[in-house]
Design a protein that fits this description.
Elements: H1 3-12, E1 21-25, E2 32-38, E3 45-49, E4 53-56, E5 65-67, E6 72-76, E7 83-88, E8 93-98, E9 112-113, H2 117-125, H3 129-136, E10 140-141, E11 147-152, E12 158-164, E13 167-172, E14 180-181, H4 186-194, H5 207-217, H6 226-236, E15 243-250, E16 255-260, E17 263-270, E18 283-286, E19 292-293, E20 299-300, H7 303-316, H8 324-333, E21 339-340
Parallel strand pairs: 9-10, 17-19
Antiparallel strand pairs: 1-2, 1-14, 2-15, 3-6, 3-18, 4-5, 4-21, 6-7, 7-8, 8-11, 11-12, 12-13, 15-16, 16-17, 18-20
Helix pairs in contact: 1-8, 2-3, 4-5, 7-8
Length: 342
């Protein structure tokens, strides 16, 4: 790839707005993952991705290559294979949030990958949190854009992966007593939580306040239904004018539900509704479309619609607009080189 799209791939991760929040209810009987995506624009597509596809990263020379073992559903704003969040057919969920303190690992022999592509790579190749942690060690994120990640699986496993002072830091098991994440390092968030008084957590929209409210509300019994409880918790940490998508994953049942700022109706999709073989077309839906079970509303993916989304999103994002239409188009076309192996 040329230098222009490499810059674009790096910068587009900055669109992961710095107020996103993730909460995981790790009850192994029915784990639930709730995620608020916050940013200045809310357009996007929901994609159903296929297994058995050979892929390569857009991170430049000797970049990561892999074949998808799993199908997945992802929410994208900057194009196919650059998700903001998603869940695969094994029930593994990945989300991302901004983290100013993030510093990625130094250059080494491992192949580089982009910060958003990393999420698709994990969804494509791992079934559980444990597998995901192992697969993450096989590649190296190449970016100046600081993110950290939350992962959860259908068995109630959860982890936070951060990159601090050039080292990969994984919080799971006893090191993850509260499965929540906002925009501060996890250890700092826990320390703040320990200082919080009262049953409802602090007011305010800061990262630490949102983390505390989310962590304290997760698993509460006032609302019996775990999905309803998750949406209620997301409402409590939403940012007026910034929260664009509120997404609730049900990994055990492979179901995802969401609301958007432009459509308050809850939409739902079951992954079992789709043919995930790469012989079948990738499918898509506008993130604001429909109500109720919208599985039947998905239509076949076209490169043109993906390209239109990326071009529009670049143009409306101040720090991406100067890169121009050419950079947006090349970024959008990167995944089209994927090859079905089935």
């Amino acid at each position: 790839m040329s230098k222009v799209p490499l810059i674009a791939i790096t910068l587009l991760a900055a669109t992961a707005a710095d107020a996103c929040t993730t909460i995981v209810d790790v009850d192994p009987r029915r784990p639930i993952v709730a995620y608020n995506y916050d940013f200045t624009i809310g357009q996007g597509l929901v994609l159903v991705n296929k297994r058995g596809v050979e892929k390569s990263s857009g991170a430049g020379r000797d970049a990561a290559r892999w074949t998808s073992r799993h199908g997945s559903i992802t929410f994208v704003q900057f194009g196919r294979d650059n998700p903001m969040t998603g869940m695969n057919d094994a029930g593994l969920v990945v989300t991302q949030m901004w983290l100013d303190a993030a510093r990625y690992e130094e250059t080494d022999a491992r192949p580089p990958i982009g910060v958003l592509e990393w999420m698709q790579y994990i969804l494509d190749t791992a079934s559980t949190v444990d597998e995901a942690v192992g697969m993450a060690a096989e590649v190296r994120i190449q970016s100046r854009i600081p993110l950290h990640y939350a992962l959860a699986d259908a068995n109630g496993g959860a982890a936070v992966i951060e990159f601090l002072e050039g080292k990969r830091v994984v919080h799971r098991g006893e090191a993850l007593p509260r499965a929540a994440l906002a925009n501060s390092p996890y250890s700092e968030s826990l320390a703040y939580l320990a200082s919080v008084k009262g049953p409802d957590g602090p007011a305010g929209s800061g990262s630490l306040e949102r983390f505390a409210r989310a962590a304290m509300r997760a698993g509460r019994s006032e609302i019996a239904d775990p999905v309803e409880r998750a949406f209620d918790t997301l409402k409590s940490v939403a940012q007026p004018g910034s929260t664009r998508w509120s997404i609730v994953y049900d990994p055990k049942n492979r179901v995802v539900r969401w609301r958007s700022a432009d459509n308050g109706s809850v939409r739902a999709v079951e992954l079992k509704s789709f043919d995930l073989s790469c012989k079948a077309a990738v499918q898509l839906l506008d993130v604001h479309e429909g109500g109720g079970d919208v599985s039947s509303k998905f239509r076949d993916y076209t490169p043109a619609e993906n390209e239109s989304l990326v071009v529009s999103a670049f143009a409306q994002t101040p720090f991406l607009a100067p890169l121009g239409r050419e950079a947006a188009i090349e970024t959008a076309r990167q995944p089209e080189a994927g090859r079905c192996t089935e």
